[in-house]
Amino acid sequence: MSRLAHLLKARETGIALALVLVVVATTVKNPAFLFSSDGWRDLLLTPSILMLVAVGQAIVIITRNVDLSVGSVVGLSAYLTGRVFIDLPGIPWPLVFVIGLVFGGLLGLVNGALVAFAKVPALVITLGTLYVYRGINVMWTGSDRINSSDMPREFLALGTSSFLFVPWLTIIALIVLVAAGWFLRTQRAGRELYAIGSDPAAAHLYGLRVTQRVLAAFVVCGALAGLAGVLYAARYGTVNSQAGSGWELDAVGAAVIGGVAIFGGSGTVWGAAIGAYLLLTINRALPVIGVQDFWQRAVVGVLILGAIVLDRVLAVRQSRRLTEARNR
Amino acid sequence: SDDGGSGGGGDGGDNLAITFLPKNLGNPYFDTSSAGGKEAVESFDGTFAEVGPTEAAPDAQVSFINTLTQQGVGGIVVSANDPEAICDALNEARDAGIKVVTFDSDTNPDCRDLFINQATAEGIAKVQVDLIADQIGGAGEIAILSATANATNQNAWIDLMKDYLASDYPDITLVDTVYGDDDDQTSFDKTAALLQTYPELKGIISPTTVGISAAARYLSTSEFKGKVALTGLGTPNQMRDFVEDGTVTAFALWNPSDLGYLAAFAAKALITGEITGAKGDTFEAGKLGSFEVGDGGTVLLGDPYVFDADNIGDFDF
Amino acid sequence: MTTTDASAPARVYRDYAHPLWRRLLFTREAAIVVLLVLVYAVAAASVRNFAAPITITYLLLDVAAILFIALPMTLVIITGEIDLSVASIVGLSSVTLGTLHQAGLPIEAAGTVAILVGVVAGAINGFFITVVGLPSLAVTIGTLALFRGLAVGLLGTTAVTDFTEFWTDLAKSKIPGTPIPSVMIVFVVLAIAFAVLLHFTPFGRGIFAIGLSSEAARFSGVKVEQTKFILFVLSGAVSALAGIYYTLRFGSARGDNATGLELSVIAAVLLGGVSIFGGRGNILGVIAGVLLIGILGSALRLANVTSDVINIITGALLVASVVSTSVLAWVHRKRIGAGIKKGPPAPAQD
Amino acid sequence: MSETPDAPAQPDAPAVLELSRIAKAFGAVVALTNGTLRLERGSIHALVGENGAGKSTLVKIVAGLYQRDAGEFRLEGDSVDFTSTAQAKDAGIAVIYQEPTLFPDLSVTENLFMGRQPRGALGVIDRRAMRAEALELFERLGVRIDPDRPTLGLSIADQQIIEIAKAISLDARVLIMDEPTAALSGVEVERLFAVARGLRDEGRAILFISHRFDEVFALCDTVTVMRDGAYIATSPIGDTTVAEIVRQMVGRDVTTLFPKQEVPIGDVVLEVEHLTQPGVFTDVSFVARAGEIVALAGLVGAGRSEIARAVFGVDPYASGTVTVAGRALPRHSPAAAMRAGIALVPEDRRQQGLVLSSSVARNATLAIRRQLARLGLITNAAENASARIWASRLEVKTASLDTEVGTLSGGNQQKVVLGKWLATDPKVLFVDEPTRGIDVGTKAEVHRLLSELAGQGMAVVMISSELPEVLGMADRVLVVHEGRITADIPREEATAESVMFAATHTAGEAA
Ligand SMILES: Nc1ncnc2c1ncn2[C@@H]1O[C@H](COP(=O)(O)OP(=O)(O)OP(=O)(O)O)[C@@H](O)[C@H]1O
Ligand SMILES: Nc1ncnc2c1ncn2[C@@H]1O[C@H](COP(=O)(O)OP(=O)(O)OP(=O)(O)O)[C@@H](O)[C@H]1O
Ligand SMILES: [Mg+2]
Ligand SMILES: [Mg+2]
């Protein structure tokens, strides 16, 4: 099969096409959507942070788990970022990225350990830690908040400035995406994540290190949410105790729209990333197209349903084709 | 000093346990008003407390009001997320002998004893429209970035702004009103969407402190900085950077600290029986002097104050 | 017809391996009920004003919507599915009620339509899940956004508040002579209906069988798809009913009513001992779970504990409850060594 | 085990793999009491025994999946103790499990090399090399499978071949195959044997588990027999006979096993006409009469279970009719079939027959829950009463009626399934492999029971892969081959030869 044919048949292609369509349609209606420096920047920038979270989420979902606590992790790590700048004045700002990653990773480790060792369903555990992490956040933050004046200018500049017309945040998100995509596709450990999600019992029989890999997936997911928290602080400049709340459903939604099967084993982080872009770009495009503020959620809902139905139709078609191929 | 249920009866005298219930916690505007309230309550030896939900959801305040009713506090000072949803809970509190003062955002008049109005709605609407008209030269497209879609005070102001625009500035068109839900990130993203949707946009009014600071932050780094005017209601501390860097020329607000201070004294006056909340009652409000209850059980703090580069340095809240 | 050898001593079959008290005492539900009573007793003794009857009124009014929705959610989760769209259906029903009432319909008629809207919403979920065959988690994430979007879109900035006082008062009224809200009568009737349906009907037996092994259920003549469809419709209808209550209680019909309630409902149901893998759970435990979260919140708020700490405690309780079950099961397995347990990852067996 | 003889005498050189007196219990179920086996280099060793004798359990202990409770396990003379399958793999033991363990979403190639893919710089998987290696493997096995397609939807046979290819490519010193041929056709089996012989000649040790004696005799040089979890005997293949092995396996002569009473055959109860489901079965027509036991015989994978499932309504069918006592049944509705009087004891008791983590009583009454309800309500008391009747009739060994059925032994589980369906008082009883995995005594009991039921006027349709069972029990043998009924052989004419001939030839060729 030629590369082109392969590309055309990939699950992600349809969703990428939908994204292009949305952008083109909106731009035709209002050229500023794409052809203004802000329009271009926001197109790339706005979804970048969610994209990081969606990539992490996709990795966890591929192992047939789910992490509902990501929104709370984003919030905690965003606040931590601000606190670090306030409490450790003069700290070189690149260091906060490391702090955010490690901190998020630790929170992910808690989730992963509970899921992998106690063998309890990820949905329940991470629903619990969603509350706990957010509660800790609120307790810690109180009615305090981080203002942009609390953070160094160079750090805040990351949230808006660009390099060769591509915003820095987008570059960071893309680097992570490429790394994750590369890892999942070309590394043994990455392939094992798929195997585990595809059939956990078989993975166990096969001798794969299921516990360890699932744990690692949660740590990575947490770390990426932590990184997203740092970027959140840079992008929005103000952080209160509710930062990132509700992102868990956006992240799961992005992954599902992007063709990551909710029962594990298939899908790519590329799909999840495109899903995140589609979700947020639609959000931004709808007002431009003239859909009233209030109806946007409904359109997003229809879109999610459409995406999973499409995915299902394709899957059924493929399995029928495979069955027919067998009865050759 | 506050041990929770301390209210019940005090020491034979009046129950001066006064609790502030803002729309949500973690909102600098309300932090300031509560600070003013605390100062006032301490000045007359009452017991101050602040409780509230983390998100400005309409129904979230009800269980807090219920709890306060059970605790038997002397007075509740509340800024309503929804004019109706908390009404019954407040009335139950009043039935239990608790005095209810609303401030900042009112409920239906029959669910509270007094409303402390930061400024007349007309005055608030007028000052913002005048500011934007001045900044965009009296003509062009403007938009409004509000708080939640159901916020009582914002909706009232927006209606008045529309009337005032129609009558006094026919050359200004209000193209859209969007809602940032008093959430930083949402307000930020809505600002971006506004600027893209309306390339001809000349100005934005954001009659909410969360909205205006998020919008200012977006504008300050965008190509529209200095081209699209922004005004509305903001706190000096949040807006200082943007006034200094030229994103914003002027914005308005009353002193939220004074607002809280006055509300606390109003609650005290009600509790001690100094006033009943009827029109014409007068009471002393410490450092702010004497106030009179106006129509509909409303007490007016004063006129909104306009902050600009010249005076912003004088304020810290 | 018998294969029993006449000479062999007849085997005696006990109904239960353990006496009744042991079977009742050593269950998740019993643990939750005991915890509930304990928390109530401790709170009544140590938190000022908690023992007052009014606490019960407020508490029940607060958790009523969760109690309602928890009933069908229990059944849905026992079949191994999940419904995340319930809170959005509450919003949609609230908006329907408000708009129609504003348009001049009496509450009775508007309420009936609102429930029908809930039924339709549930049927939409059911259609995608049972006919198209999509995972319920994904479907209801989609309809969570869709239904909420419709609700918010329909009413926009307005809120309908001019409900007849008779109805808004009714929603908050108490059963005369007791601190118990009258809405609890409706709840008790529904709860009994759901408990009977789940625990004492062939339909209920089918629900459990589906949750434990949908294949074995199908081979036993259980109509798996039909059962699930009915449950999603029930979930929609009861959520709509909760929406009506919610609207009348607060006297305010708004699109964003009850945002985020789905997670509270699911947390309470899981705390009440329902297994997220399906097949296990009971209505009594779930009611105790909802009340436990409610009482904890109410007592802690009265003790001036802030809502963040309440959230932490709720979340920790949820995690602890599943982890403890899993640890207990592990200990149990270690002791009697049975190799069969539901839930991944289990080694494949011959 | 008093009858357990001593292990074979120990030669001086250590065997590649040596197991002695391995014991393993799963809670109340004792799977192994004395697992003993000595596997030599350059040899193909057969392990035979009845269903449930403990063969697979022994394999899984060697594979590191289970840990033994007692006994000794030596590899090249050194005592080892695997705690994971990875360790066993690293030690050079490759296993083909009885049930395929493929990852359905991943490609065939990835399945072959999961966890040990060839890597280039930066640890990047070398897909090209991997694909080439896969093609080479298939070449060696003489099969054509698209290496890039996902394994989802592959036939059982193809899945089995991938498992074999996977194990072979591990290049292990010990290769264990647990019933690898169960789903394969003659050609593929031959290929497999050729490869196995090649490996033997390279000096590797192979353990081969099969229920097919012809294969054992064709391929293996040594055979070990197990019964009830214990070692019975090991002999060079030349020194033993099928009859001898069967006697060692079962502990007595088999001929006494199948007592079908002679009863008068009544009217047609079930009539199946022209049932077709494309790709699964074609134009299937047969009848079953009251008092008759009809056997559906054929090779594994012939489609017998699918036919039964379609008649019962669990699976859909495209065309044809099913009539019970003169009334046509709607398609795809088990509930309707049950109302009409059909019962199906499915082949996969653990997945389809029972709700394993539910109680004995709940399982025994699941199919009659509507009949047990009074005014729409059902109680534990009613269920227990009904379950008790069937538990005592079938002598189910269980501590109580609320015991989890998954903790019962296989035979007793099978009795619960039988009781569950007999309680529905069916007119037509389908039993799919009714004696698979149950012990010798119970097997005889099941046969007696089926025969009794027929005697009472029930029509019994029995699917069985065990030829002696078919020949002993059936009044009529229907042979299924590739989804078609290729022969209808009355009891008198049914012989091993006639059935096997029909089972391996298409209808046109059949006499
Ligand atoms: N995980 C388990 N838990 C409980 N019992 C088990 C488990 N695995 C096997 N058994 C029981 O152990 C006994 C031996 O099973 P095993 O699978 O080893 O038999 P086998 O000889 O491989 O049979 P077959 O020829 O059917 O494959 C059986 O009674 C079986 O039910
Ligand atoms: N082409 C195929 N693709 C996937 N699965 C198949 C295929 N053919 C058969 N199977 C599966 O293999 C198993 C055996 O097939 P089937 O039930 O048709 O055979 P059978 O004649 O009943 O033999 P037995 O009952 O002895 O296994 C079944 O579980 C069936 O679903
Ligand atoms: Mg076996
Ligand atoms: Mg079969």
TrEMBL record, chain A:
Its main location: membrane. It is found in: Cell membrane. GO terms for cellular component: plasma membrane. GO terms for molecular function: transmembrane transporter activity. InterPro entries: ABC_transp_permease. The keyword Protease does not apply. Pfam families: BPD_transp_2. The keyword Transmembrane applies. Keywords: Cell inner membrane, Cell membrane, Membrane, Transmembrane, Transmembrane helix, Transport. It is a multi-pass membrane protein. The chain crosses the membrane at residues 43-61, 68-86, 92-110, 117-136, 156-184, 214-234, 254-282, 294-315. PANTHER family: ABC TRANSPORTER PERMEASE PROTEIN YPHD-RELATED-RELATED, AUTOINDUCER 2 IMPORT SYSTEM PERMEASE PROTEIN LSRC. Part of the ABC transporter complex LsrABCD involved in autoinducer 2 (AI-2) import. Probably responsible for the translocation of the substrate across the membrane. The complex is composed of two ATP-binding proteins (LsrA), two transmembrane proteins (LsrC and LsrD) and a solute-binding protein (LsrB). This is Autoinducer 2 import system permease protein LsrC. It comes from Protaetiibacter intestinalis.
UniProtKB/TrEMBL annotation, chain C:
Keywords: Cell inner membrane, Cell membrane, Membrane, Transmembrane, Transmembrane helix, Transport. The chain crosses the membrane at residues 30-50, 56-77, 84-103, 109-130, 137-160, 180-208, 229-248, 260-277, 284-303, 309-331. It is found in: Cell membrane. Signal peptide: none annotated. GO terms for molecular function: transmembrane transporter activity. It is a multi-pass membrane protein. Its main location: membrane. This is Autoinducer 2 import system permease protein LsrD. One of its GO terms (cellular component) is plasma membrane. InterPro entries: ABC_transp_permease (IPR001851).
TrEMBL record, chain D:
PROSITE patterns: ABC_TRANSPORTER_1, ABC_TRANSPORTER_2. The keyword Kinase does not apply. It is a peripheral membrane protein. SUPFAM superfamilies: P-loop containing nucleoside triphosphate hydrolases (SSF52540). It is found in: Cell membrane. One of its GO terms (cellular component) is plasma membrane. Gene3D superfamilies: P-loop containing nucleotide triphosphate hydrolases (3.40.50.300). Residues 17-253, 263-507 form the ABC transporter domain. Its main location: membrane. GO terms for molecular function: ATP binding; ATP hydrolysis activity. Keywords: ATP-binding, Cell membrane, Membrane, Nucleotide-binding, Repeat, Sugar transport, Translocase, Transport. It holds the Pfam family ABC_tran. PANTHER family: CARBOHYDRATE TRANSPORT ATP-BINDING PROTEIN MG119-RELATED, D-ALLOSE IMPORT ATP-BINDING PROTEIN ALSA-RELATED. This is Sugar ABC transporter ATP-binding protein.
